[in-house]
Amino acid sequence: MRRETTLVVLAAIVVVVVGGVLAAVPDGIDDPRVGNDPAGDLSVVGQAVEPVSVSGSSVDLRVVTDISHRGGPVENVTVRYRAVDASGGILTDQRRVEVGTIDVAGEQSVEGQVQLPREGGYDVITTVFVGDERVADASTSVQGVAALEPAYVDRSLQFADTSVWPTLSVSVIDTTDDQATLQITASITNTGDTAAAGVELGVLLRQADSNVVAGEATAEVDTIRPARTNTVSTSVTVPAGYNYYVDSILQNDGIIVDEAGDVANLNPQETIQANQTVEDVQFQVADFENGATEIAQETESARDEPVSDGTPGFGAIAAAVALVVITLVARIRR
Q: What is the pLDDT of residues 152-180, one digit of tens each?
């Protein structure tokens, strides 16, 4: 009995001592289930960029970054997104996304956004931080930003594309001694399924030899029903006697949606008559056939006329000279 009592007392003392040690040093004994995971590791395994909104001057891009995680939890994770001009290296935009703790093994996606001017090309650089330490990065090149169009731009109105009917026609509606007023008429087709409007026609005339802008004008395009073609006209006054390139655009809220071109040949050797259509005027040999015929007829008439040096009495003098020569020859023979 004494032996059993002694063992019980000793066991109680051990329990009390161990309990006191654990109370004094709670972390003195490690839990084998906690703290044995290796340090966490993060890497960027993929990145995608897509436009989410487009305005007249800028583009908002969504950047989706795939981050791979291995090992133990990683705390205080942030992702920085930078947009840098590809040609000059100038920082255009910078955003930061707070991720927090990543403790799930495998891949997860983090989304950010940058805003770019709607022109040029850019490098979108993604950097992953743990605290203040850079642990991974990736870069994506973005080109052709100017080709992205605002969602509100309606391209259903286009210049008519036909084989016979002209897209642009140019006619002279008034002239003075040194100026000509041209009327430019554009054929515009609604290629959409609903009625469309809100488009402006712009016309610019450049002098062919110098490329100097001689005149420009605009005109509003009225509503056009689906699959219908309407004509819109505007006028420009330019110096007479020159040839011009006619540049024409359709624009919606300042954005060019279509363009067309033609020429206006105002021949300086011919008199310009009002209402004379000049859209299809081209240099042709037929333009000078009348003059060439007159010259040819004059040449043939000249060939039929007797040749003369214009000196009166040339025939009589020649006869007298011949008589003198014959007399001299006769005397010599005697």
A: 777 889 999 888 899 999 999 999 988 99
Other CB atoms within 10 Å distance of the CB of residue 77: 22
Mean pLDDT in residue range 243-256: 89
Mean confidence (pLDDT) of the chain:
78
Q: Are strands 122-130 and 133-142 parallel, antiparallel or unpaired?
A: antiparallel
Backbone angle region of 71, left / alpha / beta, with phi > 0 → left and psi within -120 to 50 → alpha: left
Residue-wise burial string across 41-66, b where 16 or more C-beta atoms lie within 10 A, e elsewhere: ebebeebebebeebeeebbebebebe
Q: Which domains does the chain have, with CATH numbers?
A: 41-147 (2.60.40.10), 157-284 (2.60.40.10)
User: Given pLDDT bands bounded at 50, 70 and 90, which one contains residue 13?
Assistant: low
